[in-house]
Amino acid sequence: TVCIQTNYDKRPEGYDRLASYIGGSNAENKRIDYLSPTIMQITGNSKDGSRKKVMRWPVLFAFPDSKSSSSMNINNVLPEPTIPRLSFVECPEMVVAVSRFEVAATEP
User: Fold this and answer.
1) From edge to edge, which strands make up the β-sheet containing 2-7?
2) pLDDT, tens digit, 9 for 90 and up, residues 2-25
3) pTM: predicted TM-score of the whole model, two decimal places
4) Hey, what's the torsion of the CAs at 54, 55, 57, 61, to 10 degrees?
5) Per-residue pLDDT tens digits for 26-73
6) Eight-state DSSP code of residue 66
């Protein structure tokens, strides 16, 4: 699975950057379908402020019996981001819990 990823400080900042990419702010001005869920990972120590926050959206899956996403030339499938701090990463297979937010949240 390939994800588009960004580091962020506040949650809206991460969402805005990712949404801009899939909305057409990329090298081909092309809208991109993304897949749920939003994956947020926070590491580090919250007491001394050294936390690293990363937000990812899955954008490409490789199916069994097809080429793995790591062997694909991503540039032939997905347009390059034009927004700083966005990059493609290989997302490992995982099980996730999904929570719905009823109101806007800014932490984590």
Assistant:
1) 39-43, 52-60, 2-7, 86-90
2) 889 999 988 889 999 999 999 999
3) 0.74
4) 20
5) 999 999 877 778 888 888 776 776 788 999 988 887 655 444 444 455
6) S
CB-based contacts of 74, cutoff 8 Å, min separation 6: 2, 60, 88
Alpha-carbon torsion (16, 59, 30, 85), positive or negative: positive
Q: Residue 35's closest CA among 75, 8, 64, 62? A: 62
> What is the three-class DSSP state of 45?
coil
Is the CB of residue 52 less than 8 Å from the CB of residue 45? no
Residue 74: helix, strand or coil by DSSP? helix
The residues with which 40 forms a beta bridge, in sequence order, are: 55
HSE of 56 in the Cβ direction (CA atoms, 13 Å)?
17
